[in-house]
């Protein structure tokens, strides 16, 4: 029986939904290169880092770029994405997100964010919830993207907590795999038929009950 000491949350699709902004920016990039991507393809980019997403898109469009061209396109995509999220506010929190975070803090547990977004700190500030996290680990601080466990292991290390005393919360298959690869208990947000490696699955943080997860076998 391990006593849970911390929760590590993903950002997109768990606390807020910026997928629509990513899609618009990626779609513009694809169109600049002479092809298009649809919402179905965009699902493949869920939880995937910026450069890995770019490589998937280029492969989809049959386009080959030099590393220098990739860097330029990725930077332009990010500039457009940053413009799109500039007007985000607390109104963009997903249902139950603030309450879930506050309940974890109220239970005396630590909280961390593990996000593939390099804009995560800015997004938390716009959502008005920066103070609800003890530490933030984003793509700027890791080498390997999900499903590699690095981001969740780094979050646990920064919290000073053993990974097996942490619970990770993710909505993407790669994210859940990352949590499990880190040796943590995994809560999936979404469809249990998709998030098959999750230890528990809920529809969203509006269904989150910290007392259900504090002590795990």
UniProtKB/TrEMBL annotation:
Signal peptide interval: none
**Any one GO molecular function term:** beta-phosphoglucomutase activity
Q: Where is this site: Important for catalytic activity and assists the phosphoryl transfer reaction to Asp8 by balancing charge and orienting the reacting groups?
A: 115, 146
* InterPro entries listed in its UniProt record: B-phosphoglucomutase_hydrolase (IPR010976), Beta-PGM (IPR010972), HAD-like_sf (IPR036412), HAD-like_SPP (IPR051806), HAD-SF_hydro_IA (IPR006439), HAD_sf (IPR023214), PGP-like_dom2 (IPR023198)
Keyword hit for Manganese: no
- Could you list this entry's UniProt keywords, alphabetically sorted: Magnesium, Metal-binding
Name of this protein: Beta-phosphoglucomutase
Q: Which GO terms describe its biological process?
A: carbohydrate metabolic process
Cofactor names from the entry are: Mg(2+)
So where does Mg(2+) get bound?
10, 12, 170-171
Binding residues annotated for substrate, in chain numbering? 10-12, 26, 45-50, 53, 77, 115-119, 146
Cofactor info, note text: Binds 2 magnesium ions per subunit.
């Amino acid at each position: 029986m391990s006593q849970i000491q911390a929760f590590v949350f993903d950002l997109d699709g768990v606390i807020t939904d910026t997928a629509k902004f990513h899609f618009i920016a990626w779609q513009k990039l694809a169109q600049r290169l002479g092809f298009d991507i649809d919402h179905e393809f965009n699902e493949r980019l869920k939880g995937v880092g910026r450069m890995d997403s770019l490589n998937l898109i280029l492969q989809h469009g049959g386009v080959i770029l030099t590393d220098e061209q990739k860097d330029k396109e990725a930077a332009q995509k990010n500039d457009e994405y940053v413009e799109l999220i500039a007007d985000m506010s607390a109104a963009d929190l997903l249902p139950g997100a603030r309450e879930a975070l506050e309940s974890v803090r109220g239970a005396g547990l630590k909280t961390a964010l593990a996000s593939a977004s390099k804009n995560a700190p800015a997004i938390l500030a716009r959502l008005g919830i920066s103070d609800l996290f003890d530490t933030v680990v984003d793509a700027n601080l890791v080498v390997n993207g999900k499903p590699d466990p690095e981001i969740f292991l780094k979050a646990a290390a920064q919290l000073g907590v053993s990974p097996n005393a942490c619970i990770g919360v993710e909505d993407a298959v790669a994210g859940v795999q990352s949590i499990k690869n880190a040796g943590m208990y995994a809560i999936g947000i979404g469809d249990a038929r998709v998030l098959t490696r999750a230890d528990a699955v809920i529809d969203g943080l509006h269904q989150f009950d910290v007392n259900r997860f504090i002590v795990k076998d």
